[in-house]
Amino acid sequence: xxxxxxxAITGLGLGALYFLVASGLSLIYGLMxxxxxxxxxxxxxxxxxxxxxxxxxxxxxxxxxxxxxxxxAAVGAVMAALTEFLLVRRLYERHIExxxxxVGLGLATVALFEGIWGTDPVFITGPAWLEQxxxxxxxxxxxxxxxxxxxxVLVLLAIVAFLKFTRxxxxxxxxxxxxxxxxxxxxxxxxxxxxxxxxxxxxxGLGGVLASHFFGYVSPLLGGSLxxxxxxxxxxxxxxxxxxxxxxxxxVALLQQFANFYAGGTGDLAVVxxxxxxxxxxxxxxxxxxx
Length: 291
Description:
BCAA_transport_permease, two-stranded antiparallel sheet, amino-acid transport, globular, 12 helices, transport, Branched-chain amino acid ABC transporter permease
């Protein structure tokens, strides 16, 4: 029983990380039709920014941890906004060019991060509570799992509230439905779309800081490894569906954890097979709109 509880809660924590990355991907594609293959770079830069705060302050306190979350989100948002403003804005409706540019940016930033911080993983510590465990039904659960789950739920609620109850959220949803009409009313939709990228980048930056504590290290390849599963989650949940991304994140992470433990480390294979089944039986994903 304790093993099942440990795998389940650890899977929920991993699913929360997947959602923090996939939420940005799903949001950007659903509202703007852009597949951003450089999204993992926002996560990696956020993780390194959080680590730099911890390294320079020399304190594993809650204040430092909260500052690292804020800085990680801010750095991810700024990098995402610059990516949209300088590169993607000129490539709307040109999907092949979008893929080429964002893939190239992703590869270039990995090389840049390796040049700045090196190729070896950098190990990180946080507040004492995050390093400790909590006993639930005989299972000792690392506390950082609870923190990741808590932040992911907050991000989901915040994004939904932003889109439904704010002026920019209304502009974004209207611009998606009829961009020319909104522009004719004198509203600059481009600024709203830049904000969408920034929101997605902020979620990825938060995910980067939390991922560094979840795995215990930061490396230039951290974002790329999580991006693979975030894309799988986005496709399974349905491209453009935030709720679908949340459900798929949990399902994929739980499947991965249980398959790794009970089926000889075949978690990644099980996830790929699940992706194949969804694509064959429901190509639009669990909650995606049919073309």
